[in-house]
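Troubleshooting log. The previous run stalled partway through. Resubmitting the same two chains, unchanged.
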Amino acid sequence: MIWQSIYVVLMFQFVLVFGAYDLKNLNIWPMPESVEYGAKSIFLSKEFHLKTDGSKYPDASGILKDGFTRLLDVITANNIIEFNSKVDDSLLLQGINVVILSDSDELQYGIDESYKLLVHANGKQNYAEIEAATVYGALHALQTFSQLCHFNFKSRKLVISQLPWTITDKPRFSYRGLLIDTSRHYQPLPMIKKVIDSMAYAKLVKCIALAYCRYTGFSFRNTFFSKIMGCYAKKRGINVLAELDVPGHAVSWGVGYPELWPSKNCTEPLDVSNEFTFKLINGVLSDFSKIFKYKFVHLGGDEVDTSCWSATPRIKKWLEQKGFNESQAYEYFVLKAQKIAVSHGYEVINWEETFNNFGSKLDRKTVVHNWLGSGVAQKVVESGLRCIVSNQDSWYLDHLDATWQQFYTNEPLTNITNPNLQKLVLGGEVCMWGEHVDGSDIEQTIWPRAAAAAERLWTNVGRLAKNPKDVGLRLMHFRCLLNQRGVAAAPLDGPGRVAPIEPGSCYVQ
Amino acid sequence: MIWQSIYVVLMFQFVLVFGAYDLKNLNIWPMPESVEYGAKSIFLSKEFHLKTDGSKYPDASGILKDGFTRLLDVITANNIIEFNSKVDDSLLLQGINVVILSDSDELQYGIDESYKLLVHANGKQNYAEIEAATVYGALHALQTFSQLCHFNFKSRKLVISQLPWTITDKPRFSYRGLLIDTSRHYQPLPMIKKVIDSMAYAKLVKCIALAYCRYTGFSFRNTFFSKIMGCYAKKRGINVLAELDVPGHAVSWGVGYPELWPSKNCTEPLDVSNEFTFKLINGVLSDFSKIFKYKFVHLGGDEVDTSCWSATPRIKKWLEQKGFNESQAYEYFVLKAQKIAVSHGYEVINWEETFNNFGSKLDRKTVVHNWLGSGVAQKVVESGLRCIVSNQDSWYLDHLDATWQQFYTNEPLTNITNPNLQKLVLGGEVCMWGEHVDGSDIEQTIWPRAAAAAERLWTNVGRLAKNPKDVGLRLMHFRCLLNQRGVAAAPLDGPGRVAPIEPGSCYVQ
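Second attempt completed without errors. Output:
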């Protein structure tokens, strides 16, 4: 009697909690390049397992194995949801067979992230099939697969619907970044780990730029982040890129070495006249090169107010000797820092001010990081340099008034039609500056807006919605997915990290 | 050269990140009953382990063992922080020896939660000592121990300072509750698990009241929560108590059984005239009794607008036959529901409206749950009934304007001086109602304000600060501890879940 009632309420719950899971709809985020699907369903077997028949990848460091374990964790909500065993074998999916063509697990800019995913509707010994060029493409395929699984409230079992699935997929841009400012506030390690996890859910990120040395905060990182670099992020297919912002935003350096400050009362930019400044940059970049294996390093170069240089007698004297005005000294500093980074094998990313001031002088391998406004990418690529887009009006997460719709519609290739120039736009990066963000609010400030940018950066332009309205339900579904996985993604309506409205499910906020 | 600089910055970081860790200060939250400490320090050994020499507790279900594993996880930030091995044995703490006097692991209202914790300054084979009546007292001791450990940025090792430690501790109140409203919004399981974890950090909670059946949401819970009840919460010493709110706040019942609604247009309170209403309550409480082993069940009884009863012909007719007016019918309903709960072995908690309207008729074992205002507890205990304090002006977490200082200074025994009457106040409960709370903001709305109430409920009244200013730094330290453990506790300044202010460490928000 009771259980009857509970079943009826279950159905009600089903509508409430999985209301947005419209079986006629695709609920995969970001949208793959090509998707075909049917109308059949299948249960996941209790012995659901990983096979690698025909794979060339040895998985010596367990990247694939751990990825599969994480898949099981998220689809079973850490073993709360049950698999099925009581149904006919032909209605069960036994596992996934993953074939990886490359035996290397090097994680680097531009690696092949493509994959193919097949889920057959039936047959004895039915296994889903994944084929990928690299293990990191296979990890993306597992993320997509996890989004095909859902909990059926009537059977109380894990189900995949809309079978058979045929999905082929690859990213539109290789550089899909999220910047975390670990300097302005203390960002706890567990939070950064969760952000890395959720980046992988959104296929968002090949890199985090950690804003090192802004005000405070770099050495503390070395202890912890080096361990993350070595293992945690790489196992999730995420490169970590460090920003060493010079000569501005570097006040904290002077705490260790006061001589790097022009003077006690005029503490930035770093003293351009002091050879030790560059010796220290060389030392830090030498340390970085042992930890951060990504081919790029970020040298900042933004928001440099050089007035302290002229205001400090010994530096003023040096400027006169060199015959430099302040802006020439700024150029001298940035180019000298670039040479040091190049000597450590890095290609350099600099904020757009360096391009706006002396673009023609920059190392030809420089990647210019746009942030001030739109239209910069076009100028950069026309000058032959490469570009990353982060225009603050649309892709700065700390701008709470920037809606997910703005994040979604921000097009990196605006007004860039020449295919050769388009290739010079490496991608983009959403930036989580930390003035008002710490362990208490970073997740809901990043999500779900970062996911909107993730689809812009991942999905083939032809499959991107012209009108964000057309993807609202699907993004809402992804937001609920993040919540279900313990990520505090905020509701979609309203500004960043808005509180949910009146009672309802996570699908109707 | 570089490393010198990094060390200097490290010290700077130390001040920034552990600035509030004043070694002349006690940074334990909530404050134990009695604490003695010295000025020595010791490293934790690489082989830091658990011993149970002389313990009567078999730990068949692994409650102590898992508690110790969680201790290692939090003090090492999941194995990021290193133990020490390179120093002299006499400077190393080898582990903890835990002696438990009771062999039972029954978790119930009123069990002995006391413990004694000793950490000696030196000696070969140096083990910390914990003695507790029950395993749950021992879990509290492990939480206290975890707060004695900190990361030394110079040695980069785990250290305990202020040795030797002699701590004896027990809670002031046995009922220290946090209510989570799982009905108005979907609260993801990982979030509820994290809330349970953080309750244990604050020694806050013997119980969560899950607000069942408010609008929606109970059956979904049965699948998941029953597993949590059985294992997750109990392993952390946390009882889970369910609220079955009747006759009001029960609209969702009618989705399964429309006949429970007075009519389609007048959907609450539940139909008092329909015997099936009570049959269903009996059925649900029968289910509850298999899942929720805590001696109390919450039957709600609040905010009942009975006008639908008179407005519905068949119920109006029934009222006339019974000679009831609406308020008599409300009393009839509540008392009948109480009898059903008692028949399932429960003692009943009801919201204060039941007491305010017909307190003398309530089952003598009723626990009255105060929420409307202050002064109620005094009336309740003077009438001989027991009371739980949750006055909304100070202990409703959804009231964002209620500051941590208000949470801290809210005294359950206000104007209750007679020791026999004081015993009738079981404790209190902070309430996280879910109108604007879901997986995206529940943690920072609960913490750190709930921790302020936790000390009020745990700590001996003589050791509570008269002026909350005196505990601000210590609570700030606990807030940072929560952040370091991945709990999104908000800054202390300002209203609930406020964003952090300008750049700084988590100690100066």
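Takeaways: Chain A touches chain B through 77 residues (CB under 8 Å). The first helix of chain A runs from residue 2 to 17.
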